[in-house]
Every structure is written in structure tokens, then in C-alpha cells.
Design brief:
181 residues, alpha+beta, two-stranded antiparallel ribbon, 3 helices, elongated, UXT, Protein UXT, transcription corepressor activity, Prefoldin_subunit_alpha
């Protein structure tokens, strides 16, 4: 049985360019999109908690024993309802769990939860900036490599953005690419 030929220590410069462009388009840009989508979901959660805080503060200011309101049952189908005791509220803790809290306890919970969500969004923003920096660094490297190769009379695509060869959904993630090394 014949042994497969050994891989060359150095790929041709054109192959390196293609590999870097594929890494940018297939891995880094997809990971950046995932981080930004996750951050958007965190911002949505934070917005809901801040809206809840505003409602609770208005309830505390009004000091009504009963509250008349309309509740959305889904698909814009509203029902009139009466809340007989406005001193307590059910708050979604996460993972489908709800807890009955007083208005003061709910405000404390919302403050803690909003602080955690803010920290998470800041962390995701830093991650996205890190990925963007990697993309920028690789694009600058490719730009220099293209300039070098153009001086050596080799012809390659003139711009690093031009080779988005694979659909993003089929490309390996950044972590998968790191594990395969």
C-alpha cells in the first residue's frame, strides 16, 4: 500500500491567500454574526426588565389597591382584567420559572438582573471587537501579501473581499477550526 505524499512545508502563496480569505469569510465573519446576534438578544432582555421596572415604579406611585388593564393573550387578542392586589407581582426568573415578589423585592431583582445583563452585553461587545480586530489584521496581511505577489508577477484576485466561496451556514466555527489544527 502506497503512503500518501507528504504535505509541503510551505504552501504556494496563492494557496495561503485563499486559505486566509476562506478563514475570514467562513469562520471569523460567522462567529462575529453569532456574537452580535447573542448581544442583540441580551439587549432585548434588558429592555424588557427596564420596562418592567418602569411599570413597577408607576404602580408604587399610584398606590391603587385594584388595577384595570388589558392583557394580550397572543396574536393581538386582548382581554380586560382586574388585578385585585397590586402589592405583589410575578417575575420571570428564567428557564420558565416565575416567582411572586413584592414590588420592592422585584425592583431589587430587576436591578441585579439588569446589572448581570449589562455585564454580559459588555463582554459580548468586547468579543465582537476582538473578532473585528482579527478580521482587520488578516485583511491588512492579505493586502500586504497581494502587494508583494503583484510585484512578483503572480496574478491573484486584487482584493481580499472577493473570495466568499462558501455559504456561511456550511463553514466550520472558529472553535472547530482551532480544534482541527
Amino acid at each position: 500500500m502506497a503512503t500518501p505524499p507528504k504535505r509541503r512545508a510551505l504552501d504556494a502563496p496563492g494557496e495561503k491567500v485563499l486559505r486566509y480569505e476562506a478563514f475570514i469569510s467562513d469562520v471569523l465573519q460567522r462567529d462575529l454574526q453569532k456574537v452580535l446576534d447573542h448581544r442583540d438578544k441580551v439587549y432585548e432582555q434588558l429592555s424588557k426588565y427596564l420596562q418592567l421596572r418602569n411599570v413597577i415604579e408607576r404602580l408604587q406611585e399610584a398606590k391603587h389597591s385594584e388595577l384595570y388593564m388589558q392583557v394580550d393573550l397572543g396574536c393581538n387578542f386582548f382581554v380586560d382584567t382586574v388585578v385585585s392586589d397590586t402589592s405583589r407581582i410575578y417575575v420571570a426568573l428564567g428557564y420558565g420559572f416565575f416567582l411572586e415578589l413584592t414590588l420592592a423585592e422585584a425592583l431589587k431583582f430587576i436591578d441585579r438582573k439588569s446589572n448581570l445583563l449589562t455585564e454580559l452585553s459588555d463582554s459580548l461587545t468586547k468579543d465582537s471587537m476582538n473578532i473585528k480586530a482579527h478580521i482587520h489584521m488578516l485583511l491588512e496581511t492579505l493586502k500586504s501579501l497581494h502587494a508583494f505577489l503583484s510585484h512578483t508577477a503572480l496574478h491573484f484576485p486584487p482584493h481580499p473581499y472577493c473570495l466568499l466561496r462558501y455559504p456561511v451556514s456550511k463553514a466550520p466555527s472558529y472553535q472547530e477550526a482551532q480544534r482541527s489544527r
